[in-house]
Amino acid sequence: MSTHTHDPATVTVLGLGPMGRALAGAFLAAGLATTVWNRTPGRDADLLARGAHAAATAREAVAASALTVVCVVNYDASDAILREDDVTAALKGRTVVNLSADTPARARDTAAWAERHGIRYLDGAIMTPAPSIGTPDAVFLHSGPREVYDEHRPVLAALGGTHTHLGENPSRAAVYDIALLDVFWTAMAGYAHALAVARAEGVSGRELAPFAQGIAAILPPLFEEFAGDADDGTYSGAINPITSAASTMTHVVHASEAHGIDATLMRAIEGQARRVIALGHGDDGFIRVTDLLSRR
Ligand code: NDP
User: Fold this and answer.
1) Is residue 16 within 8 Å of 44, Cβ to Cβ?
2) Which of 7, 208, 230, 266 is the most buried (most CB within 10 A)?
3) Which residue CA neighbors atom 22 of ligand 1 most closely?
4) Is 23 near ligand 1, meaning CB less than 6 Å away?
5) pLDDT digits (tens, 9 = 90+) for 238-253
6) C-beta 16 within 6 A of ligand 1
7) Taking the complete model, does pTM exceed 0.85, yes or no?
C-alpha cells in the first residue's frame, strides 16, 4: 500500500511531552487533521480543545494518518511504541518521522527495522526548544530517503522554521544532533561553572551575563575557522598558542578550587591541552585537541 492512498492533510503525533505537544499544536494551527496519542493519558486536553483527535491506542493513532511523527524521550521509548506488533502492522506502507533524540546507531537500527517491515522512515532531530516550534526560529534536521522527505515536506513545513535534508544515510540527523548537543551542553556546563566561580568572588550572574554574551559572540567566526583547521589539519597557534591557552585554564582551576568549587571539567580540558603540548604541538592552536581525541 502506498501513502498516496492516504489523505496527505492528516498527521499523527505520538508522544505528548513538551515537544510533542508543541509539534501537534503547530500541525493544528496549520489546519491539518491531527491525531494524538501518549502513553500516559491526560496530556492532550489543550490539543483536544483545539480540535485534535484523541486516539485510544497507538495502533489507532498510526492508522489515522499517512504520516506519523513520533517524539518521545529516546529510542527505547519509540521502540516500545512502534515495535508493538499491531502498531508495526498498521504502519506498513505509511511514513514515520522519528523526531526523538538518540544516537546515530539507534537511528540506523530503527531505519533497518522500518525497512524490514515495509515502513517508510525518516530520522530527524529538532535543534531548538519547544516554544520555537511553529515559528521561523525552529530548526529541523532530517535524513533518509529523499523521495519520502520530498513527499512529506509540505506537512512538515507546518512546523515552521528551517528543514534541512542531510542525505539518505538515516543516521546523519542524529550525528549532527549529537555533535550539536555536545557543543551546547559543554557550553552550558562552562556557564554554570562560571556563574559559581563569579558568585564565590561576589559577582552576580546578572553582572556577568553581558560579558558572557560577549564571549558567545566571538565564537561563530572561531567555529568556522576551527572547522577548517580540523578538516585540513592546519592548527596555526600564531594568535593564541595552546601553551598560552593552557595557562589560562590553570587560572580557572586554581580560582575555582580556592573556593572549594569542583573544577573537574576545566581540569579535563587543561589535561587535553597539556597532552597536546607534551606531544610537541605547543605552537599549535587549541583545536589541535580534536586530533588528540580522534587519534587520526
Ligand atoms: P521528554 O524528553 O521528557 O519526553 C517525554 C515523552 O516521552 C512523553 O510523551 C513520555 O510519555 C514519553 N515516554 C518516555 N518514556 C516512554 C516509554 N517507555 N514509552 C512510551 N513513551 C515514553 O520531553 P520532550 O517532549 O521535551 O522531548 C521529546 C524529544 O524531543 C526528546 O527526544 C528531546 O530530546 C527532544 N527535544 C526536546 C526539546 C525541548 O525543548 N523540549 C528540544 C529539542 C529536542 P509519558 O507522558 O507517558 O511519560
Assistant:
1) yes
2) 266
3) 77
4) no
5) 888 999 999 999 999 9
6) yes
7) yes
